Amino acid sequence: MRKDSLTAPGSGRRPCALTIAGSDSGAGAGIQADLKTFAALGVYGVSALTAVTAQNTWEVRAIAALAPEMVQAQIEAVLEDMGASAVKTGMLANTAIIQAVARCMTHWQLPLVVDPVMVAKGGDHLLEPEAVAALRAMLLPLALVVTPNLPEAEVLSGLRVRTLEEMREAARALHALGPRYVVIKGGHASGKPVDVCFDGEGFIELSAERVQTSHTHGTGCTFSAAIAAFLARGQGVEEALRNAKEYITGALQHAPGIGRGHGPVEHFWQWQPSLKYSPKNAK
Question: How many CB atoms lie within 10 A of CB 81?
């Protein structure tokens, strides 16, 4: 991924992507991670907030979901005016919000990346258990790409998912629910983090060296946001997946080391020299 690849395609209008997700007060995941990813990849990000969380790198202390009418109003406000070339979802919190998002996506028919966020790094639930059925029945059929990790793939498919062959079997099961591409992320497995992608006909594997770090907060959000960003830039799905894999690997390698727990990744790693900037009058 080269810096000169971040120039806007086509008419010169900067591509726009929408994130529908929760707020992370630690800014490593959720809306904050998505918007940073969009910006890092040359895409203008707009957002629809679904919930507010009080969290840091150790724990989620409190969660407050927004009214579904407010979520829908945000989506409609930005899409009616600013538009978007791709959409991604993250934390959706409950069934009513999933229903509101599904109504909007059915109307707008935009390329949709669904990150089925269920549990935070510390184990706190970010999706009500009874909402899983709504996610499976209402949102996955609308998705261009769905990106579960191994635990999420197990919940959604009802299958044990540990090995590569089990990942393939789960991908087939999830594809049958309607998404065009299923990407089961292998970060929770041992060895190299191999992601398995299935498009209904064949498999591709996305592999990278494992980065030994505890600073992994927001990796799923960042990966799915990167896919949406590259789709918004006009890339095909497989190219977007490969570039997103490269991007998240670099973000892990350059993690800033913030926090005492599962710290955030570095969303602007490819611009590292600019991070050293300081004003002339700084003391």
Answer: 8
- Residues 50, 266: Cα–Cα separation, whole Å: 24
Where do we find the tokens 């998002």? 101
pTM of the predicted model, to two decimals? Answer: 0.91
Q: Which residues are catalytic?
A: 185, 216, 218-221
Cα→Cα distances 228→71, 170, 264, Å: 20, 23, 20
pLDDT at 12: 61
Find the helix packing angle between 164-175 and 150-157, rounded to 10°.
Answer: 50
Pair 66, 51: CB distance under 8 Å? yes
CB atoms within 10 A of CB 202: 7
Count of CA atoms in the C-beta half-sphere (13 A) of 264: 22
**By C-alpha distance, which of 201, 205, 206, 218 is closest to 255?**
218
Q: Could you give the C-alpha distances from 210 to 45, 167, 189, 207, in angstroms and in order?
A: 29, 18, 10, 9
> Which strand (E) or helix (H) includes residue 61?
strand 60-65
Taking 80 as the threshold, does the pLDDT of residue 120 lie above it? no
What's the pLDDT at 281? 42
Q: Please report which confidence band the pLDDT of residue 273 belongs to, taking 50, 70 and 90 as the band edges.
A: low
Q: Averaged over 35-51, what is the pLDDT?
A: 98
- List strands edge to edge, sheet with 60-65: 60-65, 44-55, 16-24, 86-89, 112-114, 145-146, 181-184, 195-198, 203-206
CA 127/CA 130 separation, integer angstroms? 8
**Residue 72's pLDDT is what?**
98
